[in-house]
């Protein structure tokens, strides 16, 4: 992979970790990084199988009409097979090309339990809740209800997959919920297994439905978009934009991570991709290793809140809240801006404090060379456009993936051949811009889009045949499908486990019990309920992926904030979403920070604490939009002046907080000034005219005092 080469090359000339260092530390802390070792022919076969899984997801969503009750277990069964192939029973050294017999048995049995449902869908659906009387076998005079047996075995094997690829925390949470169903709500085995395994409110519920459609296709799109080289383009643009400024490389890390976050939506992946370039530059400039790793980790974590792709949880939010994804994108813009602004200001004040300079302008990329590469962002533009005009997210993701293939072909060629490689864009753009002409009853009808796709495909084949660089790069298409398919595994398993929790809540009415408990505990005070929710999200997120964390919190805590405390539903879900993301940089399990520390050769925990301090905005912004929904464009107060005043006060507040935490405004500060600035910044981010004016007054006073001290120092120096 490109980032592997960049990181290993950087390690030769700088005191940074290699890709092997990153792999070692991630295997220590991240279960998803512990995979079997496949080499030679078995590796090639597995690569093709995983790529075919990615292709199957596209075909299934675009051209195969299938009952959701058949599609979801089919998807989860395939995921289980691949999980057992990729992930061993425990951490540690693995035999090459070896898979023990018990893993083969569990993969086959687990997949069969899920495949049995779609194969016998009509009969199982007709049975309804009477699953104990359907598919019954007699063994030694004892009646064995196979559907209940399959449900138990399938659920247990799903739990084992979760232990291997996700970890124990979510299993512990799910176990507590299931025990409540049995002993707290008094449900019997048949009722529990029916609701968890054979309905669309349990394991096969909304999380798996969204994962097998939107999330899977957007993950594949992200893999193809990375193959176009757009990440390098974003890094070059960030260098040209801010590389010359004080502490330039750190600011490059913030800007490039924000841009690359639009592509990956993965905090760890973003850290490795951009960090392989920015962390060596930061260390060379003079930033401490733990700070360099923290800057990249904090910035990359913001990728999951950066429109348009955001993290996988954003797709779940659209489904669970019932709001179009296009609106989710719009409502995430201002919070994302404030998040990255907070980090940018933090690295700025740190650079000023350390006296760090920017990179020489002559070493930076030139805009006249970058602008001709602007076509690299075409897939992103098309994706957003198609979603905005009403295409389904699945269709938009698949079409944008085709644009990625064409754009990658253009980028690999030189000179006039670039124009030849761009010819397939003609039918694709016609299909995109004239989409309304392909509706039923119009001149071209529904077959118009199929015709455009066929023409584009033929042109792609011809272009590959006449382009040597693209012929050589054909394996990258398989790589993209493979990466997309593999990245779906952990999300799919996490969504299945989260479905257990959601299923118990639906089946037992536990949500109302929790609402009553939290409302009573908070005594009706919203701030107490928000703090409790924040702590739950952070603690749970220490060992649970963002997607599963959001599902659990959206199922349990979001309804409490919305129904029990009167918070706007969108604000409640965004609140849970934000604090689920923060877990990637919050000790003790801060995977993005650990990846950054491996590259920077810094202590992991020290890097994680620095990242938490830099990302302080993520702990503040959710409270702003919880109390003033205008920040996420919700409510009757969404007017230009109200939104502008919130943004201005929040920006000044973030500047004050960042300055106080770094100990520098226009000169080094004493502790009393630092505390005052942090307090003043918090006042400004709290919605309200009085608090804004009070916080602004604190900022002005500290600024004036610092200017007076500067004048005194100059006067003393001139004597």
List keywords for this structure.
719 residues, 34 helices, 2 strands
Structural notes for this entry:
The structure is a single chain. The chain has 719 residues and is mostly helical. Among the domains are: 21-180, no CATH class; 639-719. It is built from 34 helices and 2 strands. Strands 1-2 form a two-stranded antiparallel sheet. Strand 1 (136-139) and strand 2 (142-145) form a beta hairpin. Helix 4 runs antiparallel to helix 5 (101-119).
What is the overall number of helices? 34
**How large is the share of residues in beta strands?**
under 5%
Low-confidence stretches: none
Given helix and strand content, the structural type is mainly alpha
Please give the order of strands in the largest beta sheet.
1-2
What form results from the Cα inertia axes?
A: globular
Would you report the number of β strands? 2
Helical content (DSSP H or I, runs of 4+): over 70%
Biggest beta-sheet profile: 2 strands, antiparallel
Mean pLDDT: 86
The rounded Rg comes to 27 Å
Distance between the termini: 60 Å
Helix and strand layout, with pairings?
Blueprint: H1 2-13, H2 19-29, H3 40-62, H4 68-86, H5 101-119, H6 121-127, E1 136-139, E2 142-145, H7 146-165, H8 168-184, H9 189-197, H10 206-227, H11 230-242, H12 248-264, H13 267-285, H14 289-301, H15 312-321, H16 325-354, H17 367-370, H18 378-388, H19 393-412, H20 417-421, H21 425-433, H22 447-466, H23 468-472, H24 474-508, H25 510-522, H26 526-541, H27 546-564, H28 569-582, H29 591-600, H30 604-614, H31 616-627, H32 640-662, H33 671-685, H34 689-718
Helix pairs in contact: 1-13, 2-29, 3-4, 3-10, 3-24, 4-5, 4-24, 5-7, 7-9, 7-24, 8-24, 10-15, 10-19, 10-24, 11-12, 12-13, 12-14, 12-16, 13-14, 13-29, 14-29, 14-30, 15-27, 15-28, 16-31, 16-32, 18-19, 21-22, 24-27, 25-26, 25-27, 26-27, 26-28, 27-28, 28-31, 29-30, 32-33, 32-34, 33-34
């Amino acid at each position: 992979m490109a980032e592997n080469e960049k990181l290993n090359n950087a390690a030769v000339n700088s005191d940074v970790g290699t890709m092997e260092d990153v792999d070692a530390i991630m295997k220590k802390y991240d279960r998803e990084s512990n995979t079997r070792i496949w080499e030679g022919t078995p590796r090639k076969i597995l690569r093709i199988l995983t790529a075919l899984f990615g292709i199957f997801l596209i075909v299934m969503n675009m051209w195969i009409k299938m009952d959701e009750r058949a599609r979801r277990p089919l998807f989860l069964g395939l995921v289980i097979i691949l999980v057992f192939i990729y992930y061993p029973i425990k951490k540690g050294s693995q035999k090459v090309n070896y898979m023990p017999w018990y893993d083969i048995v569990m993969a086959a049995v687990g997949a069969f339990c899920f495949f049995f449902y779609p194969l016998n869908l009509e009969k199982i659906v007709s049975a309804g809740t009477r699953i104990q009387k359907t598919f019954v076998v007699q063994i030694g005079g004892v009646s064995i209800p196979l559907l209940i047996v399959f449900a138990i075995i399938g659920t247990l094997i799903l739990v084992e997959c979760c232990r291997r690829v996700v970890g124990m925390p979510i299993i512990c949470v799910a176990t507590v919920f299931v025990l409540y169903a049995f002993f707290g709500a008094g449900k019997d085995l048949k009722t529990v297994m029916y609701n968890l395994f054979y309905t669309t409110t349990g394991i096969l519920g909304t999380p798996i439905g969204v994962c097998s459609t939107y999330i899977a296709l957007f993950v594949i799109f992200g893999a193809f978009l990375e193959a176009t080289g757009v990440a390098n383009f974003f890094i070059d643009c960030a260098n040209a934009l801010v590389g010359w400024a004080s502490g330039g490389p750190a600011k490059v890390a913030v800007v490039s991570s924000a841009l690359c976050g639009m592509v990956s939506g993965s905090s760890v992946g973003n850290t490795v991709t951009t960090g392989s370039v920015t962390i060596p530059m930061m260390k060379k400039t003079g930033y401490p290793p733990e700070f360099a790793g923290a800057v990249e980790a904090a910035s990359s974590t913001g990728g999951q809140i950066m429109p348009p792709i955001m993290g996988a949880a954003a797709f779940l939010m659209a489904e669970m809240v019932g709001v179009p994804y296009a609106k989710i994108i719009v409502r995430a813009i201002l919070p994302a801006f404030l998040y990255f602004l907070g980090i940018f200001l933090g690295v700025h004040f740190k650079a000023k404090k350390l006296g760090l300079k920017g990179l020489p302008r002559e070493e930076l990329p030139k805009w006249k060379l970058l602008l001709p590469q602007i076509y690299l962002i075409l897939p992103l533009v098309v994706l957003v456009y198609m979603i905005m005009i009403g295409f389904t997210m699945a269709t938009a993701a698949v079409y944008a993936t085709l644009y990625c293939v064409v754009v990658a072909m253009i980028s690999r060629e030189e000179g006039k051949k670039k124009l030849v490689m761009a010819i397939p864009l003609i039918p694709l753009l016609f299909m995109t811009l004239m989409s309304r002409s392909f509706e039923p009853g119009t001149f071209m009808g529904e077959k118009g889009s199929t015709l455009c796709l066929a023409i584009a495909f033929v042109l792609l084949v011809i272009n590959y045949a006449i382009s040597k660089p693209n012929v050589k790069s054909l394996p990258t298409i398989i790589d993209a499908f493979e990466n997309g398919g593999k990245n779906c595994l952990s999300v799919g398993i996490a969504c299945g486990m989260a479905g257990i929790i959601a299923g118990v809540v639906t089946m037992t009415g536990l949500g109302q019990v929790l609402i009553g408990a939290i409302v009573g505990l908070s005594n009706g005070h919203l701030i107490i309920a928000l703090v409790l929710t924040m702590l739950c999200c952070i603690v749970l997120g220490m060992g649970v992926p963002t997607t599963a964390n959001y599902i659990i919190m959206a199922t349990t805590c979001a309804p409490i904030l919305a129904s029990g405390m009167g918070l706007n539903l969108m604000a409640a879900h965004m609140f849970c979403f934000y604090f689920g993301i923060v877990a990637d940089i919050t000790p003790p399990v801060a995977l993005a920070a650990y990846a950054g520390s491996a590259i920077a050769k810094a202590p992991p925990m020290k890097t994680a604490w620095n990242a938490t301090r830099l990302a302080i905005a993520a702990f503040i912004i959710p409270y702003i939009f919880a109390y003033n929904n205008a920040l996420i464009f919700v409510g009757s107060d969404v007017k230009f002046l109200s939104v502008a005043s919130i943004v201005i006060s929040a920006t000044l507040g973030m500047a004050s907080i960042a300055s106080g935490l770094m100990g520098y405004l226009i000169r080094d500060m004493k502790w009393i000034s630092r505390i005052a600035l942090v307090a003043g910044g918090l006042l400004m981010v709290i919605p309200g005219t009085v608090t804004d004016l009070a916080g602004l007054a604190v900022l002005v006073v500290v600024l004036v005092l610092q200017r007076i001290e500067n004048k005194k120092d100059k006067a003393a120096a001139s004597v």
